[in-house]
Write a structure and sequence with these properties.
It contains 10 helices and 9 strands. With 255 residues, it is α/β, with parallel strands linked by helices. The protein has a 5-stranded parallel β-sheet, with helices on both faces. Helix 3 packs parallel to helix 5 and helix 9 crosses helix 10. The protein starts with a strand and ends in a 24-residue tail after the last helix. Bound molecules: S-adenosyl-L-homocysteine. S-adenosyl-L-homocysteine (SAH) binds next to strand 5.
Length: 255
């Protein structure tokens, strides 16, 4: 999976993603990313990339030309299939695990990070395929949101996590939060690891973990619990079979 990030602050992206799991995944070649400086594409003699907004209003706006030329340097505009271009913006759909899984299926993704008051609408109309937010608040720039999304998408790329299975039991899979987990020591500050986690008997472990997941989700995220219950309605109880009356003439098997 290849990530390209169009930004005015490329060091933020490279420094942020070169460590830990994403850093290792890059060294091993499971993912790659390049952070491209939009300023390098400015045709202004002072390398200006922003200007006042028409009609007034506070602050500066990123201009269309440097962003468009930066985009052209990354994609072949004549190609049949162009990569998805994500503009990170508080005005987008809120990012979630399902979207991360959907983006993880792509071979290549482009991110556009805004700054100041945002970006000239015309270049957005020209290149953006997805408008995505990381939550209902306003940040100073799109670099942190792009890193958040790249991190969440990367860990779903096969090979990036040592244990691919963990993504299937983690929070948000199937509208549930993960069950509580424990590590050594067996007792800490008088608190013992619950028997379920110590037992070597694996029968029913899945069922009991699921019960914990449901309980935790109901308590902490009632909105998710509601969705889980809609998708997994409780099975109707089997109707009790009526006992056959002894010596009944109608039901008699003797006839
Ligand atoms: N004036 C804009 C906000 C600009 S904030 C508005 O009212 O919508 C500057 C930049 O930070 C944006 O262009 C965007 O790229 C990024 N940004 C800010 N908050 C964000 C959020 N919640 N999610 C994703 N990107 C965000």
């Amino acid at each position: 999976m290849k990530f390209h990030v169009m930004t005015l602050f490329p060091e933020m992206i490279t420094q942020g993603l070169s460590n830990s799991i994403t850093g290792r995944a890059m060294e091993k070649g499971y993912i790659s990313f390049d952070a491209v400086n939009i300023r390098d594409f400015s045709k202004d003699k002072h390398h200006k990339v922003d200007d006042y907004t028409y009609g007034g209003g506070a602050g500066m706006l990123m201009q269309a030309q440097p962003i468009y030329d930066c985009y052209l340097s990354l994609v072949d505009n004549n190609a049949d299939k162009k990569p998805r271009v994500i503009y990170v913006t508080p005005q987008g759909q809120t990012f979630n695990q399902q979207m991360a899984a959907d983006f993880a299926k792509e071979e290549e993704l482009l991110f556009l990070c805004g700054h100041y008051e945002g970006v000239d609408e015309r270049v957005l109309e020209e290149i953006v395929t997805d408008y995505v937010s990381i939550g209902d608040y306003v940040l100073t720039g799109g670099e942190l949101p792009a890193m958040v999304m790249i991190d969440a998408i990367s860990r779903l790329v096969p090979g990036v996590l040592n244990n691919d299975e963990s993504a299937l039991t983690e929070s948000f899979y199937n509208n549930l939060l993960e069950y509580p987990q424990y590590s050594r020591p067996e007792e800490w500050m008088g608190k013992k690891v619950p028997q379920l986690h110590l037992s070597r008997d694996h029968t029913n472990v899945h069922q009991r973990r699921l019960a914990h997941q449901i309980q935790r989700t109901k308590h902490r995220r009632p909105d998710m619990y509601e969705r889980y219950m809609i998708e997994n309605p409780p099975k109707p109880e089997k109707p009790k079979r009526r006992r056959k009356k002894k010596n009944s003439t109608t039901d008699s098997e003797e006839n």
